[in-house]
Amino acid sequence: MNSAIFRLSHYRNRGDIVAMERRQHERTTRSIRVEMTHPSIGTIVGFTTDISDGGAQVMIENQPNPPLGTEVQVLFRKVVGPINAEPVKMRVVRQHRNTIGLAFAG
């Protein structure tokens, strides 16, 4: 039996709700300051909880989440300065409470 099918059946049989794993990139747990900017919402600051070649999961505190599908310009910052010199375009693809999923928008 295919191992993915076995895992899915195992969880289904336990009664757990399971979403198919769609990630194509390995995630790395990292806390990096993120500044997301959009003309209609201004700048929102958060911190990554994990990051990959496909995107990042970002925790936002005390600010509203940008709507799903919103494209934002993102700067990743370390203590001494930016990680990326120019903002990168990312899209909000997930939301759950104060956490959003951002995907690189090419």
Task: Describe this protein with a few key phrases.
mainly beta, 46% strand, disordered N terminus
Question: Would you write up a description of this structure?
Answer:
This protein has 106 residues and is mainly beta. Helix content is 11%, strand content 46%. It is built from 1 helix and 8 strands. The chain has one helix at residues 3-14, and strands at 28-29, 33-38, 42-51, 55-60, 71-78, 81-82, 88-96, 99-104. The protein has a 6-stranded antiparallel beta barrel with strand order 2-3-4-8-7-5. The radius of gyration is 16 Å and the shape is globular. The termini are far apart.
Question: How is the secondary structure organized here?
Answer:
Blueprint: H1 3-14, E1 28-29, E2 33-38, E3 42-51, E4 55-60, E5 71-78, E6 81-82, E7 88-96, E8 99-104
Antiparallel strand pairs: 1-3, 2-3, 2-5, 3-4, 4-8, 5-6, 5-7, 7-8
Strand runs, count: 8
The whole-angstrom Rg is: 16 Å
Helix content: 10-25%
Mean pLDDT: 82
Unreliable spans are 1-20
The secondary-structure class comes to mainly beta
What gross morphology would you assign?
A: globular
Tally of individual helices = 1
SSE order: HEEEEEEEE
The largest β sheet comes out as:
6 strands, antiparallel, barrel
Beta-strand residue percentage? over 45%
Distance between the termini: 37 Å
The neighbouring-strand order within the major sheet is 2-3-4-8-7-5
